[in-house]
Amino acid sequence: MNDFHYKQNTLFCEGVKISDIVSETGTPVYIYSKNAILSRFNDLRTAFQEVDTTICFSVKSNSNLSICKVLADAGSGFDVVSGGELFRALKAGGKPSKIVFAGVGKTDKEIRYALENDIFMFNAESIAEIEHINAVAGKMKKTAKVALRINPDIDAKTHAKTTTGKKENKFGIDLTVAETIIEKSKTYKNVNICGLHVHLGSPIYSVDPYVNALKKITVFIQKCRKAGMNIQYLNIGGGYCISYTGEEVIKPKDYSAKILPFVKEMQCQVITEPGRFIVGNSGILVTSVIYNKQNSHGKKFVICDAAMNDLLRPALYDAFHRIWPVKTNITMSDTETPGTGEVKKGMEVVDIVGPVCESSDVFAKDRAIPQVDEGDLLAIFSAGAYGFAMSSSYNSRPRPCEILVDKDKYFVIRKRETYEDLIAGEGLL
Ligand code: LLP
Q1: Whose CA is nearest to atom 23 of ligand 1?
Q2: Distance between CA atoms of residues 317 and 82, nearest Å
Q3: Per-residue CA distances from 209 to 32, 173, 234, 384 (Å)
Q4: pLDDT for position 135
Q5: Is the CB of 78 under 6 A from ligand 1?
Q6: 92 C-beta closer than 6 A to ligand 1
Q7: Sites in the chain below the pLDDT cut of 70
Q8: pLDDT > 90: what percent of the chain?
Q9: pLDDT number for residue 160
Q10: What H or E segment, with its residue span, contains residue 99?
Q11: Which of 128, 191, 201, 384 gets the most CB atoms within 10 Å of its CB?
């Protein structure tokens, strides 16, 4: 069963009524299902089980400590991109030997912190970075494991702002530069280049970009090995898609069926860094309607208490998120997905907006939803990935609280920020 489901037109997360949570916490509130998170994690594990695979949950998608702990307890490793994310992964109980560190701008301080904690490996994105890792590791008398992040110049056919594997993107090392690293690799006394990494973007709705990248990587790996480099790991990144609309999308097995033959041919251990796939559809954002408003041009606005500072994706990427009342009189058939259909009786077409002073503070434009009144609750679906993680306190709005549901119980896993939190760290001159 879907972990977020309507029973008699009332929304539940696992065994808990959303409105019961809201009575205690207020809104806006992020609510996650533990079962959904673990099911997705296990789906991926099963899809890649034929080969030795380390799943490294991408902390940037949802960095809440308790969410990371749920995954650490299930055996997940972590993909981090900053000292702060590494700190979180370790605090959550992540095993250092399963933590990979990506990012184009690691500082010496971050490199040292990672080496002090004996992480699994760095995904290095430039020659300059490898030289810094080598120097820092040298001073610490350690050897750093490194995977070269390859930029294969492949279009992942995703949003321009979230594509990472094209030649104009800042990410990774192109194959021509990577070849020069083969020659240099022996001069890096404190770096062991033992893997290759590729992450093409997010979300990717077809397996073709992965296949096209792997074709290039296979050729490159052979060159590395011929030159005596011992490449044991292939990190295929993340980017696995989820359904934001209720429509069927490709599944972990569809990816692994086409990816695994390359891995087997290359005889590598696999690392993969899913974020969205695990948490995206495992969380919702619940908001209250503050006002209904209509202008003389016939445009209707539902103004709610969540805003772009709480969930940035619609403003930043024009991302579609299903939105539907937590309780409604409109009955949906089993085949319908709430928040995606046509206007029916009792529904109207509105813009669903937040209170922030920006015209981009819009969750949905011209969206058909049941008529709502002040105080009604709306659920914004598929908000578990890059939701809270990208939130801010813009307009001096305290950030929402976060709740984790486990069967018929729920837990506050992050308290709502207060006005005092907003100014903590600021002093009056
Ligand atoms: N590995 C690397 C190196 C990454 O940069 C990312 C995401 C991932 C793994 C995880 O990708 P996922 O499995 O979650 O697709 N804020 C955007 C997404 C940005 C993704 C950044 N990198 C959004 O809300 O759609």
Answers
A1: 386
A2: 23
A3: 31, 17, 16, 25
A4: 98
A5: no
A6: no
A7: 1
A8: 92
A9: 83
A10: strand 99-101
A11: 384
